[in-house]
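As a warm-up, study this chain.
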Amino acid sequence: MLLIDGLYINSYGGATILKLIIESIYKSQIKKVYFIFDKRLDHSIYSKIPSENYIVLDSSINQRKTFYLKNDSKFNSFLCLANVPPPIKISEARVMIFFHNELFLKPLNSELPLNLRLINLFKKIFILFNNKSDYVWLVQTDLMKRKLNENFRIKSQKISVTPIFSSQKKNNLIKKYNYSFVYISSNATHKNHKNLIQAFINVAKKINENITLDLTIQIDHFENVKIPKNLLINFHGKIDQAKVFELYEKVTYSIFPSLHESFGLPLIEASNYGCKVIASNLPYVHEIIRPSLTFDPYSVESISDSILKAVEIDNLPETKVLVENKLDNFIDFIISQDVQR
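Now compare it with the structure written out below.
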């Protein structure tokens, strides 16, 4: 039996990938699978799975370790979806780790506050301590494969590149608002909301038209920011995938100023919904899409300039997705690793 360990998966990107994996497994009628789910995860993602095929745990190292100590012999293979290998050393079984957090690779070099950098350093040490040379690692881009090889010293032949995303598209959508933007992200520091909002304020002061920005964060940290009357910022907070797609259908542009990403799922989703993507001029972006415009995410002026160009240029290039969805390959791979102990 295969154990799919989804503990620590609760953010939009991780939850979206987990949902796709679950749907693909049950569509293929693969029955010998057991799941661990994070208590913070939206229950609807696994509501159709028989209760005897999963357990829900707190995002606790101790709870996870206790589960493995009691049950590891029941499984022939393990897939850990949230960067972290099993909390105990697994022998005579296949172990796969899906790695999707670039911040763990060089934790002290990021722009995060010191306390978060130290936490990520601890997580990196924890990951390396629990790794074994025969474990297999799964990533979504060749760029992440190179970084994992360089920073974790994992052999290239032990790293498989399998991009996972929804291929669902909406063609020929008529966008309702010309000066409309969306940014799908968490409120983490590296998502760069501070520079983004200041850039939109600067743009609003330069133009007469009304401009809208939809954000999937709470207003908390920006309540005291003075916003021009012709700029409407909608703080939606955490939303589900259906609402995300509804926003993509409505807006003309998706803007993505994140400083660090292992993949950048919203870049592909926005493109599939006909949005013109304006994004950070960083390697992770160019790895998966050909954006309509890019900017220096560290510069408010550069972000402002790209917003102005977007609304002023009539024939802005369409965004193009450069990667192929490998979900079926991913499922075939993890099932093929389910060998007898």
